[in-house]
Amino acid sequence: NATLSIRSPSIHSTYCNTMESLHYLIFTEMGDKYLDYHALKEAWRARASPLEHLSWKRVTPFQNATKEILSSTAAALASLQQPSEDRFVTVSSSDYTDTGHYSFLDDDDDNHTVSFIDNDVKMEYADRHPGTLKEEDCEDDDGDAVDDDNKYLYFRINDSTSPITTTASRYLFSCAFHAPNESSPLEMKVAYKHQMSLRIDEARQCLNLDCFEYKPSCIDIKAAGDNAPVPTNRDLERFHESFYPEMKSEGESDSDDDDEMKEWMDKKVQPKKDETSFSEENIAEMNYEAMVGNFVHSRCLRLRIPMSKVVGIRLMASTDPNAADEGDIGAVLILETNERPGKDAFAARMVRSKLQQENAFTLTSDWTPGKMASKATRFYFYGNMFELKQTAALLAKRCTHIATMLASGDDASNSLKSSVSVEYGAASPSFKETENESPGGDDQDEPPSKKRRTMTTDGAHQALVDAKLVASLSEAKEANPPLSTWDGKVANSKEVWEAMMARQEDPTKRMMMKLMMRGPEANSAVTGVMSAVLGGQMGASRS
């Protein structure tokens, strides 16, 4: 009981925080890692705002960025009405944005542009990939400087981070890994913006696919009484471990092996002694803290593709006569390699750990379901045209043979030239066999002080158990991460949305809520309803 009374104030003190102060705290602690911070923001939107999540899935490029783009049969092409230039979109290095960095308009403020280089060194950086050297950060494989744009002017070389350039993230919707002689690939879809990102290591000429394994479920913040989504003490404890470690009292143990403590940790948080229930603000704040705690205790997973291994590349677009610009067009960027991903292609890191070494990328075995990525030679990335074209353009800027392949749909050196089928089931079996051992095989003879710390799959499973994110190793194997992590769905979002509509008493607003779920074709209907509502309000005002 004494231990419980020690822990309780540190847990309960947080639900007095305002959401504004909580957001400021998270930005202060994580803002230097722009991708992590904005992925966390979008995960919270998906968890607490079903309208934003469901409507995002219905935007035009999301709907059109599908495998239908790959069709090569005459009937399919006729139905798509796809012109030949969309079958192979030519790209040059000059297509890469003049700004030289990733940016987008803030959802919360249309007048504010989020820039991934808005920091004291005026460049984007990320945790270093295992085995890379800081001396190579600003040079390519030939020792030539890659800083022709002065991107690294203020870069301070260090052991833990290196320059990186994000090119597709907010509008990267899914990816697929296709192995030779397989009839279908492994498809992975995002559940929220920034869950997957394409990032280019310009110095080492590598394309990285970085993925966050955390996937939220939707909660009804406004539900009352017994239906209110109150998190457990353990959920909030994860938040405290990451952001308020100094609040632990003297003599307090990290262990909850004590049966009484374990029972308390798994119970829902209770109101303070002088309160009978939580306010709606309390519920939102506690759930935000709980989600942040679970997000930062999860991992960022990486697949790395060297540009030197790319023997085919192709950018294809969907056809949409109503598209205003490239941001409204669904597209797919396809890469083909001359060998399967090697043992240094897969890495993982904790999003935010108390242990500094866990925050760094470490080599791991293939983390994709069924280890399909390590068998693949074709990689499909679906998103909007703008971001994927930026990715292709920067690849062309940094790699001459990729630039040659992208310059024309008929280049003989391109294994994915316009005359080649890129439909699923057509992956070429002609590739070079590579050794694909468990990570760490190259440094077995190195002294312990020089060995790279590696994270094996078994080690990752044990880490999940130690963090109390799962109950057992067998459960961890299902959560590391299962195929459902990449199904693109947020559980309960539809049910929460229907509950919100049921509580909406204004019939006009309820009609608008229904229309917004019907996708792009409902835009004119929503506009008409809004005009009628505004017109009626103006008429009433004049009268």
Instruction: Give Rg in angstroms.
Output: 25 Å
Indicate the percent of residues in helices: 25-40%
Number of strands: 15
Given the helix and strand composition, which structural class is it?
Answer: alpha+beta
Overall spatial form? globular
Biggest sheet descriptor: 6 strands, antiparallel
Question: Keyphrases for this structure?
Answer:
single chain, 543 residues, alpha+beta, six-stranded antiparallel sheet, five-stranded antiparallel sheet, 17 helices, 15% strand
Question: How are the SSEs ordered, and which strands pair?
Answer:
Blueprint: H1 2-12, H2 19-30, H3 34-48, H4 50-56, H5 60-64, H6 74-80, H7 84-87, E1 103-106, E2 109-115, E3 125-127, E4 161-163, E5 165-168, E6 172-178, E7 186-189, E8 196-201, E9 206-212, H8 233-243, H9 259-265, H10 280-296, E10 299-306, E11 310-317, E12 330-337, E13 346-350, E14 362-363, E15 378-384, H11 385-398, H12 400-407, H13 457-466, H14 473-478, H15 493-503, H16 507-515, H17 523-542
Antiparallel strand pairs: 1-2, 3-4, 5-8, 6-7, 6-15, 8-9, 9-10, 10-13, 11-12, 12-15, 13-14
Helix pairs in contact: 3-4, 3-10, 4-15, 8-10, 11-12
